Every structure is written in structure tokens, then in C-alpha cells.
Automatic annotation (TrEMBL):
GO terms for molecular function: hydrolase activity. GO terms for cellular component: membrane. The keyword Transferase does not apply. It comes from the Bacteria. This is Alpha/beta hydrolase.
């Protein structure tokens, strides 16, 4: 049966003395008894940037899904004028924004978190802080520390944003592409961010973990997912050839098959 995607809506979320509107959409909400998969997008992602992948995954696995855009992304509230993200920006999302967002939507069960890149790092931080709200994790190209290759390619992305049509392309997915791009780019290129490291924190995770990375990932090496396995015993690894930083786009069938088998097998 086709997984039906509801029209995107917005939720009002109180965060740090202000209210932000967060764009979200449900997938197959009628499947009340099915596992819930919450999708956490990458550093330049949004609801629309996922395209049809969440629907395909939920359709194959018989899951429910929840897709959303973090503040500053997609159709959600952009960054405030002059707002500059700090080294703890992913911690803020994991410890403050995501719990508040799930509370507003009335999500009381422990969902599966499916995160990509920055979204995968946020999922790890959420699982470490909120174990009772985490059924399990599927992580695509996560970051647990900063690598030189990551910084080099984010610097290249800055050049592309300034000198090519990248801003125009991002405008298809974000109401304010400057909000999305510069929030992400500036903090990753801030020298203070080079020391960012969450290895010690994720050792608290007890939920099952599947970590996936492409062998051609331009934003990170296999040290990232192998580092997760060192900190979280029982982590399953999937290393994909012919795959760059977005496994769900480069190898969607492999990611879907591995994710469905992982979630279904863990729920037995």
C-alpha cells in the first residue's frame, strides 16, 4: 500500500524566549501501530530536500514517518537578523528544539531517528540525552568530530555559493537560502569549531544503531562511523562503494533495504 504523505503544516515551538514556526509533514499517519521514523535532515536540508525518499522508505517498511525542517531551513522560521550559531548549535537542536517539537506534536512514543550528516549528529546527541524517547538510530554520513576533509569541502561550498548559482538552487528548497547556508557554513568554518567532538557523549547511547557511509564521501571518512562503533557497542556498519555524502540519493535501494531489515529485526 502506498505511503500517503500529508500536506506540509507548521507547528509553533517555543525556543529560547521566542516562538519559531517549524514546517513538517506526516507520512502514513493512519498506521497507528507501525514504527514511527523521524527524519532529521542535513546541514542544507529541509522537508523538500528529502524529495520522495522518506515516502519510499515508509512504503517499503510499512512505517509511519515524520519529516520536518529545523528552524532556519525550508519553510520554517529563518534565522533572526544578526543571529550567528555557536559551537553548540547541534546540541541546542538535540536537547531543546527536537524535544519541544515532538511535545507540540504530541509524540509520546520513542521513534526511530533517521538522520543525515548534521541531522545524524543531532540524532546521536538526542539519543544520548533522551534514551527513553529513542527506539533506535539510522545514521547516514554522521559527524562525531571535525575532519580536515570536511572543512576543505565546506570552504569549497562557500566559494560555490558566492560565485555560482548555488544560492538560486537552494532557493527551491528554502524560503531564505541565506539563512540556511550561512548558518551552517559560518559555524563549520569557525576556527573554534575545529575542537567540536561528541565521542564521549555518545557513549551513553543504549539504543540500536545502524551507521551508513559512502566510500566516496567528500565530507568525511570512515573514521566517523567506525568511531561510533567504538563508543556504542553493537553498532552495525554499512560501508557503501560508489557512494558519496548522501547515501539515500546515491544508493537508495541499499539504504532502504538495510534500514527496513534493521528496524524490523530490532522490533522482533
Amino acid at each position: 500500500m502506498t505511503a500517503v504523505v500529508d500536506a506540509p503544516r507548521k507547528a509553533s515551538v517555543a525556543w529560547r524566549q521566542r516562538t519559531v514556526e517549524m514546517e513538517y509533514a506526516w507520512i502514513a499517519p493512519e498506521r497507528k501501530a507501525a514504527p514511527l521514523v523521524v527524519f532529521l535532515h542535513e546541514g542544507l536540508g529541509s522537508v523538500a530536500m528529502w524529495k520522495d525518499f522518506p515516502q519510499r522508505l515508509c512504503e517499503t517498511g510499512g512505517f509511519r514517518g515524520l519529516v520536518f525542517s529545523r528552524p532556519a531551513y525550508g519553510r520554517s522560521t529563518p534565522r533572526a537578523e544578526g543571529e550567528v550559531w555557536g559551537v553548540d548549535f547541534m546540541h541546542q537542536q538535540a536537547h531543546e528544539v527536537i524535544p519541544a517539537f515532538l511535545d507540540v506534536l504530541g509524540v509520546r512514543e520513542a521513534p526511530w531517528l533517521f538522520g543525515h550528516s548534521d541531522g545524524a549528529s543531532i540524532a546521536l546527541l538526542f539519543a544520548a540525552r533522551c534514551p527513553e524517547r529513542t527506539r533506535g538510530l539510522v545514521l547516514l554520513a554522521p559527524h562525531i568530530f571535525v575532519e580536515g576533509v570536511t572543512v576543505e569541502n565546506i570552504e569549497r561550498a562557500k566559494h560555490a555559493y558566492l560565485h555560482t548559482d548555488l544560492a538560486q538552487k537552494l532557493g527551491r528548497y528554502h524560503d531564505d537560502p541565506n539563512s540556511a547556508f550561512w548558518g551552517w557554513n559560518r559555524i563549520w568554518l569557525d576556527p573554534a569549531f575545529r575542537a567540536w567532538n561528541i565521542e564521549a557523549e555518545i557513549a551513553a547511547i543504549r539504543a540500536p544503531v545502524l551507521a551508513i557511509q559512502g566510500l566516496d564521501d567528500e565530507y568525511g571518512t570512515l573514521a566517523q562511523i567506525r568511531g561510533i562503533a567504538q563508543q556504542v557497542p553493537g553498532t552495525r556498519l554499512l560501508e557503501l562503494p560508489g557512494c558519496a555524502h548522501s547515501p539515500h540519493r546515491d544508493q537508495p535501494e541499499a539504504v532502504i533495504a538495510a534500514t527496513v531489515a534493521f528496524i524490523v529485526g530490532s522490533d522482533l
